[in-house]
Design goal:
Its main location: cytoplasm. Zn(2+) binds at residues 287, 292, 294, 300. Its cofactor is Zn(2+). The protein has 12 helices and 13 strands. It has helices at residues 10-21, 53-58, 130-143, 159-172, 189-195, 212-220, 259-275, 278-284, 301-308, 313-320, 322-350, 352-359; strands spanning 25-32, 36-41, 46-51, 71-76, 85-90, 96-100, 108-113, 117-123, 146-152, 177-180, 201-206, 246-248, 254-256. Among the domains are: 3-90, OB fold (Dihydrolipoamide Acetyltransferase, E2P); 96-257, P-loop containing nucleotide triphosphate hydrolases (Rossmann fold, 3-Layer(aba) Sandwich). By secondary structure, the protein is an alpha/beta fold. Strands 10-9-8-11-13-12 form a 6-stranded mixed β-sheet, sandwiched between helices. Strand 9 (146-152), helix 4 and strand 10 (177-180) form a beta-alpha-beta unit. Bound molecules: guanosine-5'-triphosphate and zinc ion (ZN). Residues 152-153, 155-156, 182-184, 206, 208-214, 262, 336 line the site of guanosine-5'-triphosphate.
């Protein structure tokens, strides 16, 4: 194994020259434990590393802190610390998959750094939503990564349905590559593999249930590498367990998969939902009362627009359900998180003995 297998290239190398003269070593971050990180070195060794003070203080925002996928400079020392090494610098990201943090904050949240290809998984049927795809494309465009769409579950739809969906996507974004796949019939993993070679990092995004795990499991083959990666168990709850998020794939290349990436869809959907009603917010600005419920309130601009026929009653009914829809998304998100922690727990169990002894978990 060499640094290049981990995605190292001439540009990183050039930037690292200064660090090299200080005796620091390059490593790629494979896990974010919040207080510490997992880092992999060129010889394949993995270390538990701490964030250096300078890197922390120089970061103007959270987005500038090291994230999974980042290349960092490690000072490896035996200063009796609890960690194997300290991060002294973070190299400039060549791509950066990020989203705006949820809630009021407009701060950027980095989901993964230095991802080369992002696969958006969807299907020709129920999940197909061009508005959502627009949002994905906006995120991906900003990231700098190459974007590829997989219309998965092709076995469930006719050739024509798959082709129509493909044409719509190509219309929406002529720069995107679209493939029709079926994880069920093992016609999908070959498409993923065609993009993978040593040093290439990929990520899969898309709604819950579109087949991301199925494709990932096929890429990983028999040995599912989340096992035995568990570390940093704090307290009893498994929710605090963090798994390795950057995984080396058996056939070469790497995959970054973490809850943030998986949740980007929820966030995208919430945003799409809200945006599709932005005209309502616009009209509602003319309501007499700023806390107008748009019912029988006096001076309601929405009701006036409904009467005038410039707003459709159906859309208004949907608008009223917006909060309900957003709540549904939040519930789905919760369910997802439970699924992830259950999955980690299950995988921990299979290799559990050693770890339960070490970290005192059951
Ligand atoms: N018919 C058909 N079913 C599929 C295909 N790919 C996945 N599935 C099924 O769809 C279901 C959901 O697949 P997952 O791989 O768990 O979906 P996911 O995107 O990982 O979902 P989350 O983990 O919630 O994000 C499973 O029952 C799969 O067997 C496919 O190509 N065709
Ligand atoms: Zn009103």
């Amino acid at each position: 194994m060499t640094l290049y297998d981990l995605g190292w290239n001439a540009r990183f190398e050039a930037e690292f020259a200064d660090c090299l003269s200080k005796g620091w070593q390059p490593a790629r971050l494979v896990r974010d434990n919040k207080i510490s990180y997992g880092a992999r070195l060129g010889d394949g060794a993995e270390m538990e590393v701490a964030l250096g003070g300078a890197v922390y203080h120089e970061a103007a925002t959270d987005a500038e802190l090291p994230a999974v996928g980042d290349w960092v400079a490690l000072e490896i020392g035996d200063d009796g610390n609890e960690y194997d090494a300290v991060i002294r610098a973070r190299l400039t990201r060549q791509t950066c998959l990020s989203r705006k943090a949820p809630g009021k904050s407009t701060e950027e949240q980095v989901l993964a750094a230095n991802v080369d290809v992002v696969f958006v998984i969807t299907e020709a049927g129920q999940d197909f939503n061009l508005r959502r795809m627009e949002r994905y494309f906006a995120i991906l465009q900003r990231s700098g990564a190459r974007s590829v769409v997989l219309l998965n579950k092709s076995d469930l739809y006719s050739d024509e349905e798959n082709q129509v969906a493909k044409a719509k996507l190509c219309d929406l974004n002529p720069n995107v590559e679209v493939h029709i796949t079926s994880a069920l019939e093992s016609a999908g993993v070959d498409v993923l593999r065609s993009y993978l070679k040593s040093g290439v990092t990929i990520a899969l995004i898309g709604s819950s249930g579109v087949g991301k795990s199925s494709l990932i499991n096929q890429l990983l083959g028999q040995e599912f590498l989340w096992t035995g990666e568990v570390n940093g168990v704090t307290g009893k709850g498994m929710h605090t367990t963090t798994a390795r998020e950057l995984i080396l794939l058996p056939g070469g290349g790497m995959l970054i998969d973490n809850p943030g990436i998986r949740e980007v869809q929820m966030w995208t959907d919430a945003k799409t939902l809200k945006e599709s009603f932005s005209d309502f917010d616009h009209i509602a600005r003319d309501c007499l009362f700023h806390n107008c419920k748009h019912g029988s309130d006096r001076g309601c601009a929405i009701q006036a627009a409904l009467k005038a026929g410039t707003l459709s009653k159906e859309r208004f009914a949907n608008y009223l359900k917006l909060d309900e829809e957003l709540e549904k998304l939040r519930k789905r998100r919760k369910k997802r998180q439970l699924t992830i922690s259950r999955r980690i727990r299950r995988e921990l169990k299979s290799k559990g003995e050693k770890y339960s002894r070490k970290y005192d978990v059951d």
